[in-house]
Amino acid sequence: MPAPVGVILADDLDPADARDIARLVPDTPSPYHGLNPLTKAVIATVGSIGAFAAGGYIGPIGLNLVMLLLAFRAGVLGQLVRISLLLTTPIAVSVVLVSVFTRAGRTVLFEIGPFDATVEGVDFAAQTLVRLFAISLSIGLFVMTTHPRAFVIDLERRGVSPRVAFVAVATIEAVPALVERAGIIGESQRARGLDTEGSLRARLRGLLPLIGPVIIGTLTDVEERSLALESRAFSRPGRRHLLWAMPDAPWERVLRWVLLAGLAATAIARVSGRI
Amino acid sequence: MSWGRFDTRTIVLIPIAIAINIVLGQTVFAALKVPIYLDSVGTILVGVLAGPIPGLVTGLLANLIWTYVLPAPFHNDYAAAFAIVAAEIGFVSGVLAQVGWFRGRPNTEPTRLVVGAVVVAAVLLAIGYYGFLPFYTDGTFSFFNPDVTADPFFTIVGYVIAIGIVAAIVGLVALLFVRRDLGVAYVAIGGLGCGILSALISAPISAVAFGGVTGSGTDLLVAAFQQAGSDLQTAVIQQGLLSDPIDKTIEFFIAFVILQTLSRRFVARFPQGEKAIGLEGA
After folding, report:
1. Torsion A63-A68-A74-A77 (CA) sign
2. B222 close contact with A: CB closer than 8 A
C-alpha cells in the first residue's frame, strides 16, 4: 500500500503493519503542517529570537506579519491570533502599566494622580509589545502546526538520544495525568472533610493535604514505571529502528541554514551598533 | 565529587519532575498574584536524587519542553528563554545535596540551633544590606531613594517588603526551633544562595527580552522599584533579588520535606539518594 502523503515509512514493513503505522502519523491539513518539524522549529526560534535581535519597530512588526501570513497559509490564522492574544494580554497589560507610568522620562504626556505617563515609557512599552507578539505568534504557530510526537521522533532520527525523546514524550502524558491525579485526590480529601472552597486561609491550609499525596504518590510510580521499561529493554545500547519519519526536502535544509545565518547576521549587526 | 548518573529510574523520574514543575508553576503563575514562581520543585528533586548533571538537564529540558512540546493549556511561550536559569537551579541543588545540605539533622542541641539561626539571619540581612539596598539607595541605609519623591503607595509596598523580609527571618527561625532540625538552616542558606545566583542570571534575560515584565505578581515589584527611581535593569535585579531567594528557599524546603517523607528504601535507589539523606554510613 502507498504511504500517506508527506510521510516516509520504514521500507521493511509488511502492508498490514504499514497500514497500522500510517494511522499513527499526524494529519497534515496544509503544506505548512507538512514541513519538516525541525524547519518549523527553526522558523519559530528565529522569529522569536530575531524579534529582539532586530529591536526597534520594523524588524519585529515584519516578523509579526510573516507569522500571520504563514498562519493564514496554514489555515490557523484565527486560532493563532485568539490564543496569542489570550496568552499575551495579561503580560501586555503589565508591560503597559509598568513602562508607561513608572519608567523615567523627560516628556510627560499626561498624569494620573502621582503617576506620569512619559513618551519614553510609551515608546518602550510599544517596542516591548511588538516583540512579545512576535515571540508569541512564532511559538504559537509552531505548536499549532506541529504534532509534538512528530517533532520528537524527527529529533531522534537526527541523533538526539532516545532517552531525551522518551522524556519529552512522557512529559506530554505526565502533565495531564498529574492534573487528573490531583483532581481525584482533591475529591477524596473533600470526602474526608477537607475544606477547599472556604476562605483564603482555609484554602491555604487545604493545600498541603492536597499537594503532599499528589507528589508523593506520583514519585512512588517511578518504581513501577522503571521496572516496566527495564523489562522492555529500555537501557539497551544502540539506536531504535524508527518506523516512520517526517520528510525533509533539500530546500528545507537550505532554508534552515539561511534563516539561522540571517539571525546571526542580525545579532552581529545589532551588537556592533549597525542597526 | 560525582556529577550524577542517568539510570533508568532517573530517566523515569525526569518527566514526572517536569510535570510537577509545570503544574505547580502554572498554578502559581495563573492563579496567585504573589511574586514567586514555585516552578522548580521537580528540578530540585532530580538534582538532589540523581546528581548535578541530571538536575541541570532536567531544568534545561523542562523549560524547552514547556515552550516547544507541550500543547495548551500548559504551554508557555516564554519558559524557553529562562532555560539556563532552570539548569542552574538543578545543578546547584545537585551539588548541595551531594555535600549533605539536604540531610535532616533532627534533635540538634539548642546551642547549635542558635548558631544556625544566627547564620540564617546574617545571610538574609547580608542579602538585604549588600545585594539589595545599595541598588536603590546608593548605599545609604534608607528604605527608599531620598532623591525621588515616591508616591505613598510605593512607601506602603516598601513596608510590605520590609515586613516580608522580617517574616522570612522569623518563619525560618521558628521552623528551625519547632522542628529542632539544623537541616532547615542548611536548606535555607542553600536556597538563598541559589536564589541570588538565579536572580543575577535571569535579570538580564528578563530586562532585555521582556521589558522586565512577565505578567505575574513580580511585575508589581518592578513597577515599585522603577517608581522609586531605579532604571529598568536595576529594578529587575532588585525584583529578582527579592523574589528569587524567597522562592528558592520555599522550593528547597518543599523538596526537603518531600525527601523526609519518602521511604528511605525508595530514595536510596536513586544514584545520589544515599548521599542526599545521609545513609552511606548506615
Report:
1. positive
2. yes
The strand ranges marked E within A144-183 are: none
A164 vs B61: CB contact, 8 Å cut-off? Answer: yes
Answer yes or no: do A132 and A260 share one domain.
Answer: yes
- Specify the residue for cell string 515586613: B163
**Are the C-beta atoms of residues B102 and B260 closer than 8 Å to each other?**
no
To the nearest whole percent, how much of chain B has pLDDT over 90? 20
Any idea which of A44-58, B10-24, B128-142, B191-205 has the lowest mean pLDDT?
B128-142
Mean of the per-residue pLDDT values of chain B: 79
How do residues B47-95 score in pLDDT, each as one tens digit? 999 999 999 999 999 999 988 888 767 777 788 889 999 999 999 999 9
**Among chain A residues, CA nearest to B8:** A226
Is there a domain that residue A237 lies in?
Answer: no
Chain B positions in Cβ-Cβ contact with residue A212 (cut-off 8 Å): 261
Instruction: Name the residue in chain B with its Cα closest to that of A175.
Output: B19
Considering the domain architecture, whether residues A83 and A182 belong to the same structural domain is answered as no
A39 with A143, same domain: the answer is yes
Rounded to two decimals, the ipTM of the complex is 0.79
Decide: B214 and B254 in contact? Cβ < 8 Å. no
Same structural domain, A103 and A168: no
Q: Specify the DSSP element, H or E, that contains B29.
A: helix B8-31
Q: What is the CA radius of gyration of chain A?
A: 25
Q: Which residues of A151-168 are buried (b: 16+ CB within 10 A; e: fewer)?
A: bbbbbbbeeeebbbbbbb
Predicted TM-score (pTM) of this structure: 0.82
In which element (H, E) is residue A8 found? Answer: strand A8-9
Query: Residue A265: is its pLDDT beyond 90?
Result: yes
- For the cut 60, the answer to whether the pLDDT of residue A160 exceeds it is yes
* A240 occurs within a structural domain: no
Query: In B127-182, which residue ranges form alpha helices assigned H by DSSP?
Result: 133-137, 152-179
Contact residues on chain B for A151, CB-CB shorter than 8 A: 68-69
| Cβ of residue B260 closer than 8 Å to a chain A Cβ | no
How far is the CA of B74 from the CAs of A59, A167, B28, B185, B190, in angstroms? Answer: 29, 16, 13, 34, 30
A235 in any annotated domain: no
The pLDDT tens digits for A60-79 are 999 999 999 999 999 999 99
C-alpha cell at A9: 515509512
Residues A20 and A126 grouped into a single domain: yes
Do A164 and A144 sit in the same domain of this protein? no
Q: What's chain A's length in residues?
A: 275
Identify the DSSP state of B229.
Answer: T
With cell 519585529, the residue in question is A60
The CA distance from B79 to B65, in Å, is 9
Three-state secondary structure string covering A16-74: HHHHHHHHHCCCCCCCCCCCCHHHHHHHHHHHHHHHHHHCCCHHHHHHHHHHHHHHHHH
